[in-house]
């Protein structure tokens, strides 16, 4: 048989290094038994008929193990390498036949893949069973957090992470600490942040001994410093102590830590298979590598069951979403296909009676693509695959499974959501500008758009990516997994219920391309939630087809390569747009009412020389066109602008570019807006408060338009958002516009002003939000007061919503504020609900039990901003009408669709 002894993907082993004999204490291997696999760069032991039973670590040059000199010199940059002791016995042969599971553990930083043939052993001996058994059956879910990626974190960043992690039901954060001198202060900052916001989320330290010195006194000091903190996670009064690695401490070291801290020990130490009884100090042990399949196959529970047979209920395990890294020293893809995240959760829920602890891996390991949280903080140098590849939708989806694992029952699905994810290029593509080459395991992943539908009732779902499309009829209530092949172009997901489209989403920031510049096997993850259908302009309005991006010739004016009248701009042509962007290092805007004129005005106002429209809704501004990019056929820019169908706004990966015929470009986008910018001034806005972004999808609470400029101030943002109800500044230089603050899971609620602490990039004396926190400004309440509108009484509302124009929520809601919001958007009906919610529309919908008048006594909740007023109640709304408005109730019929 052929056995892989070890694999060093980051080394270029030379054949001469394995031509000599390799001596082990109990086995001599002649040169003929050793060869180098030139394809996998793995040392192979050939035709030995031996079995691998245990694992240990030695240093290069150890007297116990002699390597050929050339190999020792070649390995000299490594701190240590891994070997297996090789034994041969009939007992081992029989046992290995019974337990054929191969389990690999990925080193989080050095990425050694260690394939171990596992052997069953005696039962684990820990502390007294009475102390360790969770007699109440409580289950806990942890989130692994890499502190090494938090160098730039401030208190607000920790508060943000803690809020987001706690929101989905996670019980504690495992803070992975390494050797950097600044990391202990970040640990303290995390504990302080949890306490300052009154969070019930707990924390504990996970010591990374692949980086840290193996010092008992250091571990004891750090644990005891925080053991009494109110947010310290404890098991039966004992502070949790975890680790990644730790065999260097030995049983005696761990026993000493336990005695000096009264801690509960739950490390991950590899190589203990068959030896757990020799480590009696350990209270539990968790399996890091059990989160992923260890080859080109779906994840199973074989590995879990192997350890459960030894550890019983003291066994803890992990779940993850993906694994891909692309550095010069580690370059691999580990299989995450076939809905790994869902399948793994389903496995854990099914075996919950055997588990107490599950750890989610990880919140922020961007370098290896296994992150649940937003991409922020520090990333390892050379990381090109995480930015603009969100994973937060995976965490949103996990809430359903976290609840099931902790309670034993899957929660009812009350909201329709499509979660979807995909890689950005074919697995077998050749990247034109990447010298590293494809990662190992690249050929394990299919080119597939994965989707999971959470449906409250039967629906029809369509998945599209470029030319690939499939419609799935009669998608049942519950959780349904779907997939289609990927093709070049944009992703679109739709859901239709009762003849009405309730989901129709095309993420503007993702395109599947066939000719990548850099390799990227990370996943882009999104989600689309069902919304009520828009109010039609008239009863005869026809919805435009969504099956083609090419407009009818009679309604589209093709841009000509001539000056654009009265704009000072000239059309240059249609250009391809991939990574890097054709118009880079400038301004990016995206809004659902995009037109050529809007884009040109925005770029002109900021002093840019070039403007480009793309994909119907996008606008790019820059002072240069990326070198080497040339115009293509104008017919390839064929997508109508979202805000004006007679305009062309590029296409998929095609951008319609215009050049300013005015002044020469400036060195940076710091020009004060000119008369071509929106005419509204900051005086039309008033400060609303500090508001957190959402928790799902893109997380953006304001979704209509976005800007990022080096001269950002609240006044600049308000000017850019003149056509919207809200303007929000964030993270010093960002600006967001919209008419509602409750998109993507945001509540719109005002939080303490201390959370908005970032200085504005254009004026350091002003505040521009924080990390995922906005300083929000709202249009002044200039519309008519409630005295000019008429109260129509108390009405029943429902999931279908009786008013479907727009909605918002704010802590200081009053009747006047809601009427002002609706009036400013030209709606004629307004309704306040649940003390803080406002709904607008021009037609009263009466479906699903909504839109029915009821007793005024049922609207009994005081308004958040004026307790003398009532703002509806739960599913009850105080309805108001504009002067001269009669309530028109719209009944929508439910038609039975015949499918052939």
TrEMBL record:
Recorded hits in Gene3D superfamilies, A to Z, give:
Glycosidases
Residue ranges constituting the WSC domain according to the UniProt record = 568-661, 684-780, 788-883
Q: Which residues form a coiled coil?
A: none
- Superkingdom field: Eukaryota
Keyword Repeat listed: yes
Q: Which residues cross the membrane?
A: none
GO molecular function terms noted in the UniProt entry: glucan endo-1,3-alpha-glucosidase activity
Report residue spans for region: Disordered. Answer: 530-559
Q: Which UniProt keywords apply?
A: Hydrolase, Repeat
Protein's UniProt name = Glycosyl hydrolase family 71-domain-containing protein
Species, as recorded: Crucibulum laeve
